[in-house]
Design a protein that fits this description.
The chain is α/β, with parallel strands linked by helices. The protein has three domains: 77 residues, no CATH class; 141 residues, no CATH class; 329 residues, Kinesin motor domain (Kinesin). It is built from 18 helices and 16 strands. The strands form four sheets. Strands 1, 5, 6, 7, 8, 11, 14, 15 and 16 form a nine-stranded mixed β-sheet that branches. It has a three-stranded antiparallel β-sheet with strand order 2-3-4, with helices on one face. The protein has a two-stranded antiparallel sheet with strand order 9-10. The structure holds adenosine-5'-triphosphate.
């Protein structure tokens, strides 16, 4: 075997070792076996050693043994050395070693963020505190509300329970009264209830129950009466003002005052308002102005509403009165709508409605009376009266008048002061339809043209006269009445209506006649000795309606719009003046004529014959 550095050289010398070494080897062997004795050898030991002195063979064997051991040791040492020389494989670093720097970095970052986070947390904490306080407050509030509500609820409930209890008790009492029995023992709860309501001991006996029941019934009656009286007082109180005005108007009407209705047209930018049945208020730059009328109709009022109030005058015409209904107001304020209605007659006005009303009355009285209805229809255009039953096409119509081709129509008055149109055709009608057909024929001949303010403006005054003659079939007496229906042309300002040339002439003529009407109204209202009827043909035609022997209804049509404020005020002022005019109806009651009529009535009542001249 080759000598390696560090290795133990192989033992080639096989010579035995001196004996002395044997002892040492024994000692080594013992100690290797862990049984080395430390005690000093005794004389017995020495004797025994001497007796065991090894033989050569034994020594050789011993040597072999030792050699083997030596080799064994050598191998072990070599192995150890080799092991030391073998390079140690790198130990895999644990994962945490890699993570550590990242962790440290993160930790630094976190440390840096800590103060900021602390501030943030503090803020959030504070906010939370605030929100919490707020929420608590709200909760407390809600609790308080809930308590309050529940208190209210409780009190309402107990009130209701109390009421129900009282009612039940009353029912019970009534039941006992009905049956005439006393409450029984098993009804003790009910009795207690009754007692609670009516007083202790009140229902113990049949008599007591009856008495209490009667008391209850009379109390109920009294309560009912008190309630009814209270309602009546309230009703009276609220209608008192209205009634007062109504009766005042009735008295005025009986005195023969012209009745004046005010009708407000629909429209925007409203400055006119109906304050009650009889008043309108106008907002002017100088403050509010109130006007009183016999009735006020708002934009919402229907044609039916208006006619309901106007229709009693139709009966008066049938009864022999001279009745006049006319519409007055600025252009486009709704006069034609009120008097005639809309174009397709979905909302017929006073004229067509009056035709129907006349023939309805005729129908109702045909067994006792014989009627004759005739009509003239005129227009006053450019201060000339034209018979609308004479139809002349287009411009020829206007021209014809100036050339005197048509019959001249003149206003006359009969000896009773009733106006009639001399030269105008009077046509008879035997039904409302016939009368309406005549009216349509007349309307077709009217002068209408578009102005800036009204696409179909009436450029003339329309005057419809319906004469009703009734003959009493029993005594043959004849009664004559007249219904004048007038749709005036609108008062206007030429600049506003955009009138030019012949339209301007029309406008001037309309304004002239309306201003003459205004003068007549003013004079009558002021009770002046002279009334200027003759200043215009219009006032001549209307002479028997204004201040004459007539029942007159004037409808003042007004626009609610701010832009028409001036015209509205003018119309309202004139209409208020007209309201003061007293016609001769009442005065005539005192007159000789009426005295004669009274005589006739007396004769009729006593069964005497009445002559025509008596009437
Ligand atoms: N109460 C109302 N309800 C509905 N529409 C209305 C009412 N009054 C007026 N009108 C409408 O307003 C417009 C003008 O009305 P209307 O022609 O009757 O005015 P007017 O006073 O006769 O005018 P003019 O004097 O120019 O003839 C019409 O289209 C009419 O239908």
């Amino acid at each position: 075997m080759e000598d390696l550095p560090g290795s133990v050289p192989e033992l080639k010398d096989e010579r035995p070792c001196p004996i002395i070494h044997n002892t040492q080897f024994d000692q080594y062997e013992d100690s290797a076996a862990g049984q080395t004795s430390k005690r000093p050898p005794t004389s017995t030991d020495r004797r025994s050693q001497r007796s065991q002195i090894p033989t050569l063979e034994g020594a050789k064997a011993r040597l072999v043994q030792l050699k083997e051991r030596l080799y064994q040791r050598e191998r072990e040492i070599t192995e150890l050395l080799e092991e030391e020389r073998t390079p140690v494989p790198p130990i895999a670093l644990p994962y945490c070693t890699i993570l550590l720097p990242t962790l440290i970095h993160k930790a630094h970052e976190i440390c840096r963020a800590v103060p900021e986070t602390r501030v943030l947390l503090k803020l959030i904490g504070e906010e939370n505190q605030l929100a919490l306080a707020e929420a608590r407050e709200k909760l407390d509030h809600l609790h308080a509300e809930e308590d309050k509500e529940s208190d209210e609820y409780e009190s309402t409930l107990s009130l209701l329970q109390e009421t129900v209890r009282e009612y039940e008790a009353t029912q019970l009492a009534l039941r006992f009264i009905k049956t005439g029995e006393s409450p029984e023992i098993n009804e003790s709860d009910a009795v207690t209830e009754l007692e609670a309501v009516l007083g202790r001991g009140a229902v113990r006996t049949t008599e007591g129950v009856k008495l209490v029941g009667q008391q209850l019934l009379s109390l109920q009656d009294q309560l009912k009466q008190i309630k009814e009286e209270k309602n009546k007082i309230i009703e009276n109180y609220t209608s008192e003002r209205t009634m007062r005005k109504k009766y005042y108007n009735m008295v005025e009407d009986m005195k023969g005052k012209i009745r004046v209705f005010c009708r407000i047209r629909p429209g925007g930018a409203i400055v006119v308002e109906k304050t009650d049945e009889y008043s309108v208020t106008v907002e002017t730059p100088r403050g509010q102005r109130e006007f009183q009328f016999d009735k006020v109709f708002t934009a919402e009022a229907s044609q039916d509403d208006l006619f309901l109030d106007a229709s009693r005058l139709i009966q008066s015409a049938m009864d022999g009165y001279n009745v006049c209904i006319f519409a007055y107001g600025q252009t486009g304020s709704g006069k034609t709508f009120t008097m005639v209605g809309d174009k397709d007659q979905k909302n017929p006005g006073i004229m067509p409605r009056s035709f129907n009303a006349i023939f309805d009355i005729i129908q109702e009285n045909r067994a006792k009376f014989e009627f004759k209805v005739s009509a003239y229809m005129l227009e006053l255009y450019n201060d000339k009266l034209q018979d609308l039953f004479v139809s002349l096409p287009g411009e020829a119509h206007a021209q014809s008048q100036s050339h005197g081709q048509a019959r001249r129509v003149e206003i006359k008055r009969n000896r009773k002061g009733v106006v009639f149109a001399q030269g105008a055709e009077t046509k008879e009608a035997s039904s409302a339809q016939e009368l309406y057909a005549l009216f349509q024929q007349a309307c077709a001949n009217r002068h209408i043209s578009a102005t800036k303010m009204n696409v179909e403006s009436s450029r003339s005054h329309l005057l419809v006269g319906i004469m009703v003659e009734s003959k009493n079939l029993t005594n043959g007496s004849v009664c004559k009445g007249k219904l004048s229906l007038v749709d005036l042309a609108g008062s206007e300002r030429a600049a506003k209506t955009g009138a030019k040339d012949h339209q301007l002439k029309e406008a001037n003529s309309i304004n002239k006649s309306l201003s003459a009407l205004g003068d007549v109204i003013s004079a009558l209202s002021a009770e002046l000795p002279h009334v200027p009827y003759r200043n215009s043909k219009l006032t001549q035609v209307m002479q028997d309606s204004l201040g004459g022997n007539a029942k007159t209804l004037m409808i003042v049509n007004i626009s609610p719009s701010e832009c028409n404020l001036d015209e509205t005020l003018t119309s309202l002022i004139y209409a208020t003046r007209a309201k003061n005019i007293t016609n001769n109806v009442q005065r005539n009651l005192e007159s000789k004529e009426i005295a004669q009529l009274k005589e006739v009535i007396m004769k009729l009542r006593s069964g005497q014959t009445v002559e025509d001249e008596d009437i």
